[in-house]
Design brief:
By secondary structure, the protein is α/β, with parallel strands linked by helices. It is built from twelve helices and 14 strands. The protein has helices at about 1-25, 25-35, 100-105, 165-180, 195-210, 240-250, 260, 290-300, 310-315, 320-340, 365-370, 380-390; strands at about 50-55, 70-75, 85-90, 120, 140-145, 155-160, 165, 190-195, 215-225, 285-290, 350-355, 375, 380, 395-400. Helix 5 (about 195-210) links the parallel strand 8 (about 190-195) and strand 9 (about 215-225). It starts with a helix and ends in a 22-residue tail after the last strand.
Amino acid sequence: MEKHFWVGVIIVLSNFVHAFETYHINETELFFLEAHEESVSLVGRNPLMVGITLIQAAAAKGAVCTDGTLPAYHLHRGYGSGANSWLVNLEGGGWCNNVRSCVFRKKTRRGSSAFMEKEIPFTGILSNNPQENPDFFNWNRVKIRYCDGASFTGDSEHKDAQLQFRGERIWWAAIEELKSKGMHYAKQALLSGCSAGGLATIIHCDEFRGLFPRTTKVKCLSDAGLFLDAPDVSGGHTLRDFFSSVVNLQGVQKNLPFSCTNHLDPTSCFFPQNLIGGVRTPLFILNTAYDSWQIQSSLAPPSADPHGYWRDCRSNHAKCTGSQIRFLQGGFRNHMLNVVKGFSRSNQNGLFINSCFAHCQSERQDTWFADNSPAIGNKAIALAVGSWYFDRAIVKDIDCPYPCDNTCHNLVFRQAKSHH
């Protein structure tokens, strides 16, 4: 058994190295490709495994993954009181912003259904266990797979590199398919997603609301999707530059909410801070005040830190200096709180911003709902979201600043070996 395991590891690593050699992906690009939501924590001994379904009708609509394969989803049927309720989850996983990084994605599950797992675990908000997911366990729960590279918004192609950017068409093809499976008659619906899927949730929230009659209760949950248009540690704009190239390459502009594009440039309208004020549907923002993906990839990426001052802090918050923590408090946490100020004035919107170094908390069982899951004022994330969705309470939970919260499940990363 051990021998087989090591063979598998060697193959994976050699493919990874091959990707570097062929496409010369630099370290910063790799951060954008490899979002941390990939490491889903499977708390609970036997997670529910749900099989994949390819959307056969998608090809005729040109709704295909980056490599031209059919898009896909995983559906687990609801029952009992949840039989007419639908939770639609948009998968996350970074973006690609140039031909090189998009060609790399084509050979992964992020750009091709040929590489997607045939079945995936449904944990956290997707779990069918009432002890793990008290409010949504018996709903129809769907994960729409992410294989376009622009948060389900692009619509263009690159013929020479044989790249299809059809995120917007995939979104609509998936929605049509789910409507035909019974979602059309939903009495309650929730659109959710984490990371790039959390951004997609904000962008498509009002469209999702528009699918249902007024009598249907429809809300949206964006987890770790509040990507900030904030300067990096060198004063540059790593994430803005990156988003700009995603928007331009993938033809995103025409699919962004008009409430934003009628007064701001398309790149600004790919940033949630410029979208959330225009979303009319009730929206819940779940985010950490020290989002580990944003710290690693947009705030203090290696490209903005040539001398490596942020290297230790980037991989382990406990190694941050006093001045680095002050930068994170002022340049990031305070920025985030300012961004949600107007949004939080509306009682229909919900907020849970905890002072953790993490990324994506709704789909991992240990952070969504477990004996020791993160909490603000003894309220776990699952209970906060449930209270908001079912109008049991107005939820506007903002944690005191780091290091006051001892319930966090902080992510600490192994240092990558330096190539210098």
